[in-house]
Design goal:
This protein is α+β, with helices and mostly antiparallel strands. The chain has one domain. The protein has 3 helices and 4 strands. β3 and β4 form a beta hairpin. The longest helix has 16 residues.
Amino acid sequence: MTRPLKVRKWGGSCGVTLPKQVLDDLGVGEGDLLYATRTPDGVELTRYDPEYEQALDAAKDFMRRYPNLMKKLAEG
C-alpha cells in the first residue's frame, strides 16, 4: 500500500495525519505509541519498540544459556 501523507505545521513542529485505514493496518488508535525506525529502505513506522525487542532477545538468550538457574528462580 502506498499513500501520500501531507506534512503540516503544528505549532513549532510538523506532523502528518494518518488515515483510518493506515491506523487499522498498524493496529493502533488514539493514545497509542508508534516508533519510527530508520532502515536501509527509508523510515518504518511500527507499534513495536525496537529497543524492547532487543531486550527481549537478550533475555531469551540468557534463559537458553542458563536453564538450571531459571529453574531455581522459578522455584522461589
